[in-house]
Amino acid sequence: MKTLNVRDSRQVLRNVKVGEGVRIWNWVNAYECEIGDGSMIGTFVELQSGVRIGRNCHVSSHTFICEGVTLEDEVFVGHGVMFVNDNNPSGRSSHWNDWDLSRVVVKSGAAIGSNATVLGGVTIGRDATVGAGAVVTRDVPDGATVMGVPAR
User: Fold this and answer.
1) Dist CA 103 CA 67 (whole Å)
2) Cα–Cα distance between 42 and 62 in angstroms, integer?
3) d(C-alpha 63, C-alpha 26), whole Å
4) Quick one: the chain helix, strand, coil %, rounded to 5?
């Protein structure tokens, strides 16, 4: 893996570890994260500190992947997917780090449809499918297909 540091008019990549054959399109912001071999990151994506993306993943444009999210190998993420890492936000906090991180794990081979929202503390199982526009509020079993609000 090599480490990228780029700051120009099209993107900011700060201490991003990337594997072989990684493609990162323009207007991506990524900070202290890791992207595995052969993965693709589309335009207008944000990857926050500590995000881990496995090998041969596809993250489509306009997606937000926050701290605490891990995508295992061969995961597909559709356009505009939103990951959440704080299920109990409070505007009363006096410090930016005064909150509980709720991790998300997306297991190998899973696919998440466009505009889905994945709440913190959720695991999406191996080869599972999340329908477009779904709101995932609980774990998705291996091989399951879920859709709707909340996803079932």
Assistant:
1) 8
2) 8
3) 13
4) 0, 35, 65
Q: Read off the tokens for 61.
A: 């444009």
- Strand locations in 42-144, DSSP E? 46-47, 52-53, 58-59, 64-65, 69-71, 76-77, 82-83, 104-106, 111-112, 117-118, 123-124, 129-130, 135-136
SS3 state of residue 126: coil
DSSP structure string for 24-65 = E-SS-EEES-EE-TT-EE-TT-EE-TT-EE-TT-EE-TT-EE
pLDDT in tens, 63-102: 999 999 999 999 999 999 999 998 877 666 555 666 788 9
Q: Using the 8-state DSSP alphabet, how is residue 140 labeled?
A: B
Helix (H, G, I), strand (E, B) or coil at 143: coil
Global pTM exceeds 0.85:
yes
